[in-house]
Design a protein that fits this description.
Radius of gyration: 20 Å
Oligomer: single chain
Largest sheet: none
Order of helices and strands: HHHHHHHHHHHHHHHHHHHHH
Shape: globular
Distance between the termini: 36 Å
């Protein structure tokens, strides 16, 4: 399989993961890296065109995982810029890269990190950027500490700045505050407890994401014990196996395909998926009947389910728009 064929396979939408193309891309690492960088550059500079194209492309999503696997530092500014979007273009960036924002964007950021911490900090502090992207940047800092690419003390100091003032003026972004407090918990930031207590008095922190008892227990650990736990968690690793990560992400992109094709799918997971689908339907109904009470929805559902509902609605609208365009052409 030549480079052109590999790229074609990676680009073409399919219900099945292009395993062979990904394997060949890894084998052709040096030759494929410039092509993947070029694909991301094009996507970043032509988001609307890629988003509105008649044929959906999976190349941007596959490029992110492969460049992360390769630890390609040239990709770092490209990827940060791709997701440093606001309003309509933020939605476009999310759509053309699959479910990566809530799945593995934090791990991708950390995997291609080139030492320029300010880029992630700017993303975190930009109020116009999606809260999920900002949360991914926060988690990326935790991963960088866990993998000895940043000093814990440096990140704890920065989190203290965020808690003490840099995020003031965002009292309604409970999801963002919850992600920040969870990151502090994961680093055993007991030195941040006074700031967290003050924030918790004025901002609603999601107790599903950050159970109070778990927070207290985490602060009883030493920093070394907390880091050991982090390093044992698959959520705080760099990207090493893009096939496995992409396979697992299918669970959230297309549950039926996952259950049919994935070697990770078990009878137990099938039952879990059925329960998740029922839960999603109930929460969609609940959200409609509550008049769009965002706080109530956030309190009763994990962020990925909430994000997925919003994403599915946008996909439906996008599909309708494309069908109209095709009819006009005829």
């Amino acid at each position: 399989m030549e480079i052109k064929e590999i790229l074609s396979e990676l680009q073409t939408p399919s219900d099945e993961l292009p395993r062979h193309a990904i394997e060949r891309a890894i084998e052709e690492r040096e030759a494929i890296i410039p092509e993947l960088l070029s694909a991301l550059e094009y996507t970043k500079n032509n988001l609307k065109e890629v988003y509105e194209g008649e044929e959906e492309s999976y190349l941007p999503m596959h490029a992110l995982y492969l460049l992360a696997k390769f630890r390609e530092k040239q990709a770092y500014p490209l990827i940060v810029d791709l997701f440093d979007q606001t309003g309509e273009t933020q939605v476009m960036a999310e759509e053309v890269t699959g479910d990566i924002i809530t799945e593995d964007l934090c791990r991708v950021f950390a995997s291609v990190y080139n030492g320029d911490l300010s880029r992630l900090q700017q993303l975190i502090e930009n109020r116009e950027v999606s809260v999920w992207t900002r949360g991914a940047a926060i988690d990326a800092l935790v991963i960088l500490v866990a993998r000895d690419l940043l000093e814990r003390e440096q990140v704890v100091r920065y989190f203290k700045e965020l808690l003490s003032g840099k995020l003031k003026g965002e009292p309604n972004e409970s999801d963002l505050w919850s992600m920040l407090v969870k990151a502090c918990m994961n680093l055993c930031g007991d030195e941040l407890k006074p700031e967290i207590d003050r924030v918790s008095e004025v901002v609603w922190v999601d107790e599903i994401s950050v159970p109070p008892e778990a927070l207290e227990a985490a602060f009883q650990l030493s920093p070394e014990e907390a880091l050991t736990r982090l390093r044992e968690s698959s959520d705080y690793t760099l990207i090493d196996d893009p096939i496995a990560d992409l396979e697992k992400s299918i669970l959230f992109m297309n549950p039926q395909v996952f259950l049919q094709h994935s070697p990770f799918a078990t009878a137990q997971q099938a039952r879990v998926m059925e329960a998740m689908q029922v839960q999603e339907e109930l929460q969609t109904t609940s959200a409609s009947s509550s008049g769009g009470d965002d706080r109530k929805l956030s309190a009763n559902s994990p962020k990925k389910v909430k994000q997925k509902q919003q994403k599915q609605a946008r996909k439906t609208n996008r599909s309708k728009s494309k069908k109209k365009k095709k009819k006009k052409k005829k």
